[in-house]
Amino acid sequence: ILEWILQSSTHISKDCEITFEMNPEDGSLPYLKQIKKLGINRVSIGVQSLDDSLLEVLDRRHGAEKALQAIDNVFTAGIDNISIDLMYDLPHQTLTAWQNTLHKIQTLPISHLSLYNLTIEPHTLFFKKQKQLTPHLPTQELSLQMLEYACTYLESIDLMRYEISAFAKNGRYSKHNTGYWTGRSFLGYGPSAFSFWEKKRFRNIANLNKYHDLLKSGESPVDFEEKLSYPNDLNELLAVNLRLIEGVNLEEFQKKWGQLSSLTMKVLQSLQDKKWVQFENKNVKLTKTGLLFYDSVAEEII
Questions:
Q1: CA distance 59 to 42
Q2: For the chain, which domains are there?
């Protein structure tokens, strides 16, 4: 696909961000040099942990050394915009183990980091082993310690928190994800891909063969679509936009998207009374406590 785009007359802006997501075990240097030639200028790597025992718990195919080598290979290939994913709240994870993983990234040539806590979803390995693993999960107190340590330490090495789960150096925010949070339109191609266009979200069918057959026959592969009505559309967009640490300029938001309902403004006032959001002139943003209870904040707004 990328070769076709490069060979076509399609214009790609100079500041276009083209991200390639990969697992560490797929990061060979010759391969990365090849994708660099195709125009890839940002790579996101699913590192998850730099602790071999925890990578085994996660059933990952790579070890810590393989992850570190993959990061080095990406940089050597000439791609200097590198993001990694890290996870906490893992079974058998201690605060010391988490700190050790964080300390290892200080000298890595990364510009972005996404931080996730483990959530046990249906139809996953962890869901099947839930009864065995739950007793070994960190306590809520330990989980909070891990998060607070991570936020403090990452900012000490210039990875600044700009979104609930995202940190960046020198303002190298993820353009793609920032688009999600600010309501920018986007199109997704391929099975299961989501799109957001003209205030409507839609999804392609998950099955690859059915997706192929539908396109070949000139039919739409979309199997779900939704367009929220007022004020639900603005409420959802506001809730998602609040994920950004800088918050939301309510005047600019309403100029662009429309007037927030009186009920929504009352909800924001209620959230301020709970000390989950704070107002600064025309801006509203999550407080330190609000960052911890974002799901509850979003639920009340939506």
A1: 26
A2: 13-178 (3.30.750.200), 183-226 (no CATH), 232-301 (1.10.10.920)
- Tokens 């696909």 sit on residue: 1
Whether the CB-CB separation of 208 and 147 falls below 8 Å is answered with no
Tens of pLDDT along 75-119?
Answer: 999 999 999 999 999 999 999 999 999 999 999 999 999 999 988
pTM of the model: 0.91
Which helix (DSSP H) or strand (DSSP E) does residue 263 occupy?
helix 262-273
Number of residues assigned to the chain: 302
Q: Cα separation of 132 and 117, whole Å?
A: 18
Distances (CA, A) of 82 to 25, 27, 72, 157, 219: 16, 12, 10, 15, 38
Helices (H), 208-261: 208-216, 232-241, 250-257
Residue type, 25: E
Q: E strand or H helix at 104, and its extent?
A: helix 95-104
Residue whose C-alpha is closest to residue 184's, from 257, 266, 111: 257
Taking the C-alpha atoms of residue 251 and residue 301, their distance in angstroms, rounded to an integer, is 18
Alpha-carbon span 165 to 245, nearest angstrom: 10
C-alpha distances out from residue 51 to 107, 110, 111, Å: 17, 18, 21
| pLDDT tens per residue across span 251-264 | 999 999 999 999 99
206: Cβ–Cβ under 8 A, 6 or more apart, which residues?
Answer: 191, 192, 223
